[in-house]
Protein: Anoctamin
Organism: Fundulus heteroclitus
Amino acid sequence: MNGDYPSDADSDDARVGNVNEELVCPQEFLPTFQAIEGPILTKANQVEYNSKPDSLFFDDGVRSIDFILVYEDEEKVSERKETIVRRKARREYFEASLMKMGLELEATSSVLNDNLIFVKVHVPWEVQCIYAEVLHIKVPIEVNTTPPRPSVWNCFHCVTKYFKPDEDLIKKETDYFTAPFQKNRRDCFYIGDKNHFFTPSMKSRMAYYILCRAPYELNERVKKFGITKLLSGGVYKAAYPLHDCRFNVKSREESCPNERFLLFKEWAHPKNFYKIQPLDLIRRYYGEKIGIYFAWLGFYTFMLALAAVVGLSCFIYGYRTQETNTWSKEVCDPEIGGKIVMCPQCDLCHYWMLNSTCDTSKTLTIFDNFGSLVFAVFMSIWVTVFLEFWKRYQAELEYEWDTVEFLEQGEPPRPEYEAKCIYDRINPVTGVKEMVPYTACGRCFRLSIGIGTVLFWIMLILVSIVAIIVYRLAVFLSLSIKLKDAGDLKNLEPIKEYVTPQMATSVTAGIISFVVIMVLNTLYERVAIWITDYELPRTRTDYENSLTLKMFLFQFVNYYSSCFYIAFVKGKIVGYPGKSVYLLGKYRNEECDPGGCLIELTTQLAIIMGGKAIWNNIQEVLLPWVKNLISRYFNRSTSEKGELPRWEQDFHLQPNLKLGLFYEYLEMVIQFGFVTLFVASFPLAPVLALINNLCEIRIDAWKITTQFRRIVPEKAQDIGAWQPILQGIAILAVATNAMIIAFTSDMIPRLVYYWSFSLHEGYSDHTMKGFINSSLSYFNTSDFSGTALNPPIERLRNVTICRYRDFRFPPGHPREYEYNMHYWHVIAAKMAFIIVVEHIVYLTKFILNYVIPDVPYTIKERIKREKYLTQVILHETNLKLVTKRLRPVIDGFSGHVEAKKDNEIEMSQY
């Protein structure tokens, strides 16, 4: 996008040597910024509204409307005279620049508000040809007659046809071989009707390209150009391409394709949640960038279906076995868990009975079982298969949507980059002198500033997390003191006395954490945009990739830090009763809930995923709808004014967000991280993600089709920087899931006990009986330092021995309270498990990556065929041009030869 400039009273922010330098392309392609001098006399033609609300044309009914500019007539509003004069002068200069660059303009007043003026922009045919070549737009050269290869899905056509859009409404597009348009070889292309040769989205893209580069003020020191700065300065109120009709009513114009109506009916309507998306129509109407997002989201959702089925199966398996689970039954057994007294989990807490955690233990077995181990390995393979098959599908879309050579052809520079080009350098590829905005040292300095700022904000997040942890410990301690000072609570169970301060601490800490996350998100978004603007990336793709990386690093720490803390830090460094570890020398480190840290991690994931999904969907649906409802209420047309024209209806829709699809991608990638990084603790994560995505696709479709102005079409080859981010998450997911199973769950201690220690416990065969007793160590209460604990429950007053979760020698042993051999066996098994699982999974990922090619063989063949045809056609054209130019010379030479022969014949006869 062009120019994120400060205000109407712009500063000298783009100092250059000469305003007459061109911005983007050679002299033969683009008009320069010169010769618009003196008083501005040329203005857009003013016409009256022709009472055709569905019209997409100028008043003459011939020239199409390719873009709309909206401004407020300064003479009818009360503002400072200096502001009025400056805005009017800039607008008139800008419109004169547009007409000098080849655009045609026509203005008309608003039907509802006489102060508003709508300027209709048309790109004539000759200008379309120029900018189609500048933008490397690929157009048809020949119909593709190659028969498509049969697909496996054709065998299931009788079933799959019900999941496809109505083919009678959305007809399949003709398949062409394409090539980048060249103006001087236009005869080589499959033009037909030139009014429909370039699609409306292509013409809107051309118009926006010109709008972003047209000057609005003549200044020898500063290049002042671009519609974005005029929008931020209030010169124009809006700039947007038109929707072709209303979303719920077909246009009455015969020439209207009604693509918006078809998209709503077959795609955006909630009743179509089970249907395949019409990606070709989405791409045709909104451009490749929007199309590739919905293609990725649809493919991700499709792949989630398989993961959801396996995850749901593991959940059902855990649910059905919770009552028969051996270690759960031991916890609930009055003769086992009912006789085990557990040590306090804080300095001012009380003793508690193990069987008081019976319900928590049963719940834990649903998620902590052998099925979760299988599911974690499955998801590690699944994520690799997903990414590899997405690459193949993306390659197919690149070919079908003509973006294979998008980056190779050269993406146009951003206007902000061009405006600050003040240094000369030799292009290492072309060998031609070009202008750049900074030297090599300047670029390193800018990148260093950016990296340093990002690291500072990440450290700020970590500091806030530590501060919240300290808050939790302090509040928990103070609440425990108040409970103790309240006296003996004989009517309360010991576990309730423990949970009450824990719950209060968790709720208040959660609220504070949420506020901190929201505040830091808002602040960092602005900082990240400022840093990226300061770095001055050359192209729009470079800009988005740089911003994406910064924002994801921040969001990664912001969203996942609490999960990483619960999974790998909480309850790991706590010492043992009588010798606890203290934070800052004052606060005793948090221990896990009586049911273990895995159930806490599961709860945290369920709350974050479910709450985040519900909040995002409500926000995406409710806010635009309410804003448009209010807008329609205050701008409702009266019966005598009739129906509003198409351009005014679109004006009252919501403007598109500055960062476009960035937040949509970010939301889905964060969700992808929850689904893959911590899935070993929550097998229902893919199920929740699948349900959310089925809603997300239709919500996003409904939102951009009905509530927002039409998005300016943009070209995109792939999902950009999100691809390597997804690959990084996939690699990290293997390690995190292996470590969750090893260090957070009780899976490895159970396996070690099952295969090694159960025989030593006196059982005749391998069994899980006695596991609970073997996983708890003994502690002599007389070894407590400080004030002796005085539990309020009568039956716990004479406690001499309590138990705690660890593998240590009992009191009275020569090495009392040191780690026993069982502990080292378990640690060795955990490390071996992590190493073996990681190597097996990574080897499998490597094999899959090698076996599954990124580009299907059929696509490679079709790309080669297209290149061959392009070379043949262009070669023949070159031959014709050379022959045409040499024809006079050849004819003259042939005439000279014939004359010479005639002369020789005459001489011989003589």
